[in-house]
Amino acid sequence: MNAHRFDNIMLKTKTVGAKATPKGIEVTFASAEEGGSAPAPQLYDLVLQAVGRTPNGKKIAAEKAGVSVTDRGFIHVDIQMRTNVPHIFAIGDIVGQPMLAHKAVHEAHVAAEVIAGELQGNKELAAAAFNARVIPSVAYTDPEVAWVGLTEDQAKAQGIKVKKGLFPWTASGRAIANGRDEGVTKLLFDDSPEAHGHGKILGGGMVGTHAGDMIGEVALAIEMGADSIDIGKTIHPHPTLGESIGMAAEVAHGSCTDLPPSKK
Fold first, then answer.
1. 4 is catalytic
2. What percent of the chain is helix, strand and coil (3-state, nearest 5)?
3. For residue 255, what are the contacts with CB-CB under 8 A and spacing of at least 6?
4. I need a labelling partner for 150 at 20 to 30 A (CA). Which of 20, 21, 51, 189 fits?
């Protein structure tokens, strides 16, 4: 359904000018490669400009308080969100990637607990630390894209053998009923000899409507060290999009009855 929105994607091209005219916004392009050809100027009704963002560590005079700031403006912290100045803490985008609000909230919890624990003499609170194993990411497009943990490319680069469970939403009753069966759910499990066929989940990703609403289950599975049997035998309600996670785990385990057996 989105095919018409991507019928003119310009690769290896950069924008070099935009001018408002009575007929619309005239945008000119240049090749991103030396000697390459550039598309002709185009006329648009709307233009979205994504300028990016930069950390403001240099702009808030943090160094005047003795806080160490990198050349790019980031502030380094330890797992308790403490800067090099013991009584100053930092959280969020300014402490580095990934720049995500849901990461920042958990970092703030840690900083607040440590500060409160030290002020109250509460050793349990004072020992708080940010030790999340994974942090999920979501691209709020249509369809949505969500992922967490290792990707196949990352596993390959690190020399980690993985077993993949891939469940296409064309086999999902809910996706079919929604008229949005273009999605897919993929889970990756440790398939190293040391795992003895019961490797823990290492990562997962989804493409489809509401993918961002479901990736939290995959993150929880990674945090808890679940394997394909743990996830596959967890009863998911039917018909839902979320059950595609259980189905993908069954595919990895070889017990999924919602898809034809894979060819050996």
1. no
2. 30, 20, 45
3. 232
4. 51
At residue 89's C-alpha, the angle toward residues 88 and 91, to 5°, is: 155
The one catalytic residue among 76, 210, 238, 253: 238
Taking the C-alpha atoms of residue 224 and residue 72, their distance in angstroms, rounded to an integer, is: 35
Cα atoms in the 13 Å half-sphere on the side-chain side of 111: 19
Q: Which residues contact 141 (CB under 8 A, 6 or more apart)?
A: none
Residue 148 to residue 134: CA distance in whole angstroms = 7
Residue 8, both tokens: 């003119």
- Kindly state the greatest CA–CA separation across the chain: 68
Q: Output the CA torsion 196→201→207→212 (10° steps).
A: 170
Q: Are 200 and 134 in contact (CB under 8 A)?
A: no
Would you state the pLDDT for residue 264?
A: 62
| 110-105-203 Cα angle (round to 5) | 95
